[in-house]
Amino acid sequence: MIRELNFSDSSINETKLSIIKEFNTPSSKVISLAVNKVQSHKQGNNHTKDRSEVAGSTKKLYKQKGTGSSRVGSGKNGSRRGGGKSFGPKFHEVNFKINKKTKTLSKVTSLILKIESNNLYIFNEDDMNIDNFSKSLKSISHKSIIFVFKSTKDSDIIKKYNNYKNLNFMSDSTYSVFKALKHEALFLSKNSELFTKHLSGIVK
To answer: Do residues 157 and 191 both lie within one domain?
Structure first.
């Protein structure tokens, strides 16, 4: 079930939109891929110094023969205290690529899951302003909500409510399947590409 939030009177009404039969079974594999991509965004800045990077002299510690000890060269050797690490981690870029079609399918699947759990709402962002947005928030009973706009640039509403707890804002370009599934309810703008391209293709 898809419902619509009207900012003019802060009411929530049911719509006649329903999922097309062929899209009824969401792909769990696609969702797991999208979630793995988010979790793979690591900094990759763990780094240990090898023998060429540690401070110290490369002078032979003592002569080759006549001491009774085993032969030794530089004090920066990995086997000595204060020496370099032989096979430690280096600065690296962590990447996890998803094909464009798979990425699109994961977005569609996230919308289907929200529709099946009755947690997908649509709204008209042209009717929004700071006053009626605060009133409409009071009519929403969900614990965590996320709003998806066409663009979040230069929005007074987002500037004011961006730091509110359990309230998040995304645009078409920053839409995250992981965040959408993590929040209880998803509010989708009629102006966004997610509505015009993806949602319109799976409902009638």
So the answer is: yes
**In a structure prediction context, what are the per-residue pLDDT tens digits for the chain, which is 204 residues long?**
788 888 888 888 888 777 776 666 667 777 777 777 776 777 788 899 999 999 999 999 999 999 999 999 999 999 899 999 999 999 887 777 778 888 888 888 888 888 888 899 999 988 888 888 988 888 888 999 999 999 888 888 888 888 888 899 999 888 988 888 889 999 999 999 888 888 877 777
Helices (H), the chain: 28-39, 100-116, 130-138, 156-161, 177-182, 193
Same domain, yes or no: 175 and 124:
yes
Cα 172 from Cα 147, distance rounded (Å): 11
Domain span holding position 135: 2-41+98-201
16 & 30 share domain: yes
Residue 182, CB-side half-sphere exposure with 13 Å CA sphere: 11
